[in-house]
C-alpha cells in the first residue's frame, strides 16, 4: 500500500488509553500491509513495536488524509470501512486514527493478538507471581472522572472468596495507598501486601505476570491482562451495570466474555 496508517501526536490519556490507539494503528497496518506512523510519547516509548512497520515516531503532518472518527469503528459495517480505508491507502492517501480512540472497534478490528504486536522493551521477570493474585485499585483521578469506578474493599474481598483464591499470596497495586479501600484490604486480608513501589514499567510488568487480576475498571490493568497471561481478570458487576445504563458498550462486551484475548473474565 502506498499510503500509511497515521496516528497523530497529542494522544489523549495515559498508558492504557494510548495502547488502544497504538493497537488499532498496528492492526490496520498488518491487515493492509501498510506503513504506520506512531508518535513518540512517554508511554509509547516503553514498548517494542514492529520496527519494520513503524516509519516514524515523530509528530508528522499527513496530507490528503482519510480522517477517521471513533464512531466509524462502531457504526459502520466492518467490510465497508475496510474497503474505504483500502481505497485511500491504494492511491497514496494517509489514514488517520482518531487521537481520542479508546475501545471502539477493539475486538472487531484486531486481526492478531495484541501481544504479537506490542511488548515492553525492558521488564523485570518476577517469575513467582503466576500463582499469586493482583488487586489493582485506582483512585486519584477516578475521584473526578467517575465515582462509580472507585471500587470498595468489599468488591475485592468478595471476588477473592467467590473465586476460591484466598489461599494464594495477594499483592495490592494502587496509586492511592492512603485510600480507605487499600487500608481495609491490608487490614482484612492477612495474606496481602502492598507491592513495592517501582517504575511504571516494572509495575505494569509485575501486574501482567500475576495469575489472577482483580481490578478497577482501568485500561492500565486491562492492558496488563492483554499483554500478560493471567488465568483470569475480574471486574465489578456494579460497574458493568453502570456502563449499560450509560450506553457504553465496551465494558459490557468484556463482561459477556466476547474478548477472546483474555483467558477468563469474571464479573463479581
Uncertain parts: none
Share of helix, binned:
25-40%
Elements, N to C (H/E) = EHEEEEHHEEEHHEHEHEHEHHE
CATH architecture of the largest domain: 3-Layer(aba) Sandwich
Cα Rg: 19 Å
Overall geometry: elongated
Q: Report the portion of residues in β strands.
A: 15-25%
Strand order of the biggest β-sheet:
10-9-8-11-12-13
Write down the CATH class of the largest domain: Alpha Beta
> In terms of structural class, how would the helical and strand content be classed?
alpha/beta
- Rounded mean pLDDT is 86
Kindly identify the CATH topology of the largest domain: Rossmann fold
How many helices does DSSP assign? 10
Determine the N-to-C terminus distance. 46 Å
How many DSSP E strands? Answer: 13
- Count of structural domains: 2
Main sheet specs: 6 strands, parallel
Which key phrases capture this entry?
five-stranded parallel beta sheet; 2 domains; Rossmann fold; 16% strand; 268 residues; alpha/beta
Could you please describe the fold and organization of this structure?
With 268 residues, this protein is of the alpha/beta class. It is built from 10 helices and 13 strands. α1 links the parallel β1 and β2. The longest helix is centred in the first third of the chain and has 18 residues, at 15-32. It is elongated. It starts with a strand and ends with a strand.
